[in-house]
TrEMBL record:
Region of interest (Disordered), ranges: 1-39, 81-116
Residues of the signal peptide: none
Binding site for S-adenosyl-L-methionine: G123, R128, Q191
Name of the featured protein: Alpha N-terminal protein methyltransferase 1
TM spans (from-to): none
A GO biological-process term: methylation
Protein family membership: Belongs to the methyltransferase superfamily. NTM1 family.
Keywords noted in UniProt: Methyltransferase, S-adenosyl-L-methionine, Transferase
InterPro entries: MeTrfase_NTM1 (IPR008576), SAM-dependent_MTases_sf (IPR029063)
């Protein structure tokens, strides 16, 4: 189960639940093994279906959060387009693969001011990020969210939905969601939701969704031919444990992971980091929040 959003203060989480404490003896469970999806459902079902409920009583950070995410996406799109254009510069021996001079098998990334085709918000909650950011940069947004009472809020955007801008709504937890094999996304946005999955579930989810990125060709054995043009983006709280370990929150049954742990999980999932950046402008009482843009290796 994974529901966004969840802003934690540094006093919310119990340092005694860190992996460092667990490593002092074999009698205590590992941090992520304490995760209970049924407890998560109970916690989120008790929250109000509005921005205040989604952000744990910190609705004032929403505007800063959305602006930070918007800026990050723009930087990633600009960076990867420059990289693509540099790597695709034709040499004197290169011939175009079509009459138009374009290689249809290896599409060019859209310009940074062009709307993306289709994106996904994982653990979408009431669609705060969908309506506040993703619909501004994409033609269509699909959402994954286990609680129907949250996705029902999207009904107020009926004109947008009827235009096909709000696409499929999957009422499912991320740990059990299986995207259709032919589905392709330009961005898969995951914010304050992967902390509700175990380490193993995070890796498996990232592996599944990486196969739905634009440009992915399941039958190709060529790394070059299988180069994706889409991104998986992760935005999560970071642990400030003195030992750099993960911290368990028994209130919503989630894990606040260290930067080191996130990078290890991305590596295990076969993903490379294209860009990463800390969110700025949040109150100092909140945990640091980091954004990662990922692509398959």
């Amino acid at each position: 189960m994974a529901t966004t959003d969840d802003v934690h203060t540094q006093s919310d989480l119990n340092p005694a639940s860190s992996e460092h404490a667990n490593n002092l003896g074999n009698s205590l469970p590992t941090t992520d093994s304490q995760i209970s999806h049924s407890q998560q459902i109970s916690y989120w079902d008790a929250q109000t279906a509005d921005v205040d409920g989604m952000l744990g009583g910190y609705p004032q950070v929403s505007r800063i959060d959305l602006q930070g995410s918007k800026n990050f996406i723009a930087k990633v799109r600009r960076l990867t387009r420059i990289s693509h254009e540099t790597n695709s510069s034709p040499s004197s021996t290169t011939k175009p693969s079509s009459a138009s001079g374009k290689d249809s098998a290896n599409p060019t990334p859209p310009k940074t001011n062009t709307k993306l085709n289709r994106v996904l918000e994982g653990g979408a909650g009431i669609g705060r990020i969908t309506t506040g950011l993703l619909l501004n940069i994409a033609q269509t947004v699909d959402v994954v969210e286990p609680l129907k009472k949250f996705t029902d809020v999207l009904a107020q955007y009926r004109p947008t939905a009827e235009q096909g801008r709000i696409g499929q709504i999957f009422n499912s937890g991320l740990e059990s969601w299986n995207p259709a094999p032919d589905c392709r996304y330009d961005i898969i946005w995951n914010q304050w939701c992967l902390n509700h999955l175990t380490d193993k579930q995070v890796v498996e989810y990232l592996q599944r969704t990486s196969k739905t990125l634009t440009g992915y060709k399941p039958d190709s054995n060529s790394e070059k031919d299988n180069e994706t043009l889409g991104w998986i983006m992760v935005k999560e709280n970071l642990s400030t444990d003195d030992w750099g370990e993960d911290i368990f929150d028994d209130a919503d049954s989630s894990v606040t992971r260290s930067d080191r742990k996130w990078k290890a999980l991305f590596e295990e999932a076969g993903l490379k980091i294209i860009k990463m950046e800390l969110q700025s402008g949040f109150p100092k009482s909140l945990y640091p929040v980091k954004m990662y843009a990922l692509r398959p290796k």
